[in-house]
Write a structure and sequence with these properties.
Length: 222
């Protein structure tokens, strides 16, 4: 199979896994549930730690881990178990930071600075997220890891902006503002690059031109 066909197959598989379908194959659903349950167990300890560290209860951690594990095994079922675990934990981190970030605005504001200087973050989930960002080079190509890191920094910065700009009036002429803001808060660049493992291709030439379309799809359905 040539590069173009392989990219098409990855994208086709990703799109099928990313949307709700009428698929009712019981065996398929059982296998997905089993894989999701195993992935849940691998990430739950870490998730419960950063959730309980800021005073939320274990039920929050269970729900968060369930959503994150489902993301890893469904949308990214074509990747390795190590990639799925990374993606699931990453998902738990960014969802939680989005959900409760308004309680930790200053930590969001200083995330990029502290990441660049190697400082510890006062909001525990951000320490886990920063660690994942540094590990990205082990699992994705340099191009992919660079994109994952920059997308994450931009996403957290945009969440801070969202928390602090509630009183901003959107003018009627700013018709592109929602798309501009969504592109930053959706982490779509990271989730697009997650598809293409480092072991699959040493360079991104064969799939780079598909990324704008993939990012648009992710922003539209997440």
């Amino acid at each position: 199979m040539n590069n173009q066909n392989e990219v098409k197959e990855i994208l086709r598989d990703y799109l099928k896994r990313s949307v709700t379908t009428a698929k009712t194959d019981d065996f398929y659903l059982v296998k997905i549930h089993e894989r999701s349950a195993k992935l849940f167990q691998r990430i739950f300890g870490t998730v419960s730690d950063f959730v309980e560290d800021v005073g939320d209860n274990v039920e929050v951690a269970k729900k968060l881990s369930t959503v994150a594990a489902d993301m890893g095994v469904t949308a990214y079922g074509h990747t390795s178990s190590a990639h799925q675990e990374y993606i699931a934990l990453y998902t738990a981190c960014v969802v939680y930071a989005d959900d409760v970030g308004s309680r930790h605005v200053e930590a969001l504001a200083q995330f990029s600075h502290r990441f660049s200087t190697g400082e510890k973050h006062p909001f525990p989930v951000l320490n886990v997220l920063a660690g994942l960002m540094k590990q990205s080079y082990d699992l994705w190509s340099k191009t992919g890891a660079d994109a994952i890191i920059s997308s994450t920094l931009m996403g957290i910065a945009a969440r801070h902006l969202e928390c602090t700009s509630n009183d901003m009036t959107i003018t009627p002429q700013a018709t592109w503002w929602p798309n501009y803001f969504r592109n930053r808060t959706g982490f779509a660049t990271a989730y697009a690059h997650f598809n293409f493992m480092k072991s699959w291709r040493p360079t991104p030439d064969s799939y780079m031109q598909s990324l704008p379309y993939l990012e648009f799809f992710i922003n539209s359905c997440k």
